[in-house]
Amino acid sequence: MTSSATAFAGADYGRVVAPDAVRIERLLPGPIERVWSYLTEESKRRLWMASGTIGSKEGAEVEHVFRHSELTTEDDRPPQKYAEHAGEVHNYGHVLAWEPPRLLAYTWNEETGTPSEVRFELSPRGDKVLLVVTHKRIADRAVMTSFSAGWHVHLDILRALLEGEKPAAFWSKFADLEAQYDARIPKP
User: Fold this and answer.
1) Residue 135 in 3-state DSSP?
2) Exposed/middle/buried for 11, CB within 10 Å: 0-12, 13-18, 19+?
3) 153 half-sphere exposure, CB direction, 13 A CA radius
């Protein structure tokens, strides 16, 4: 992978911004406080990503409880290589930045021994909100491919919810996007 930023064709695709970081953006219906609530309130976040708690100050604990099969109404099963993610999956971290309603950052997957960091930045764009998600300190290209596809699908589900639309099935879209990101992310 090159050290320079690599843009992907298509506005919705994430882009490699460092050898260990990917950034993905979505323009969402506002106002900014509404989008912030979908990042921080468990009852709303569980609709597009994961339930669990995010403490509201730096240093606070983060727990995500993923139940991917509950995100959409389709009978959606994970690809074989992600079979262990068919049920409940837990992810732990700590808040690095808490600046409502513009910035939230926390560590990701601390339980794995190779934690990474996720940063959510929100900025108003008229009646819309630009959400920028940057995931950095990613262990390797294979993990970057998986994380990129995962964020892409989760953010598409968030956008569909905010626009009052039905989201696509999580796992089938994830599998398709993981293959696309594998072709798009430069090989080392």
Assistant:
1) strand
2) exposed
3) 24
pLDDT at 4 (0 to 100): 31
Average pLDDT over residues 8-18: 76
Tokens representing residue 95 in the block: 């808040």
CB neighbour burial string for 58-89, b if at least 16 within 10 angstroms, e if fewer:
eeeebebebebbebbeeebebeeebeebeeee
Q: Are 119 and 103 in contact (CB under 8 A)?
A: yes
Residue found by looking up tokens 């994961």 in the block: 50
Which residues are CB-neighbours of 130 under 8 A, at least 6 positions away? 25, 26, 27, 28, 122, 123, 124
Q: What pTM did the predictor assign?
A: 0.91
Contact 110, 94 (CB under 8 A): yes
pLDDT band at 75 (very low <50, low <70, confident <90, very high): low
